[in-house]
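DM from R.C. (forwarded with permission)

"hey, sorry to bug you on a friday — could you get me a structure for this? deadline for the figure draft is monday and I only need the backbone to look sensible"
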Amino acid sequence: MISTRTDRVQVWASQLAANDFPPVCAMTGAPAETWRKFRFSSPPPWAYALYVLVILGILGMIVAAALMSAVAQRASGFLPLTRGSRRLVGLAIWVPIGLMIGAVALWTVVPIGAVASIDATDPNAGTVAGLSLLLGALLLVVGLIGRLVVTPLVCPRARVTQPPGYYDKLVEIRNVHPAFVAAVNQMHQARAAQYAAVQA
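My reply, with the result:
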């Protein structure tokens, strides 16, 4: 289970669920101070063909996302982090979500409030509604870029697979610090040596 890449390490889903890692921050390689739960999912390769449903518009995107989520392999558990890394992960996850929620709020709450408080014949009514729609679209685009581009670059991510003949799932944790990878691989090698000594 040892990868040749220094930014990724393979573990079993049961090890991830049991938080069975050395106390080394997965993001910085410094001594860990806390833990944070991560949920990983990977759709099978054939599921990407569902993106063809995007040609149906928003409804197609929703159906494709729901189907891909339904067939994805999942694994979750806690990874060791420093407090600073934990804060960074929280910001990378929640700031884009907040921006997208803000976009929805601008598209619904602000126009309703503007219409209720401004006379429909007032020339500013259309301007307020137009600006809120434009600002909402901008927030949505920035939120989506943050969620789809920035978050995966900052946070640990993983590919979850089900090897044939195995009950447990294999999780390749990616975008982690080489010191964390080395510590996990060293732990695996020590356990393998102990098991070989017991069997001898």
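R.C.: lifesaver. The chain has a mean pLDDT of 83.
me: no worries. Strands lie at 8-12, 34-42, 73-81, 157-161, 170-174.
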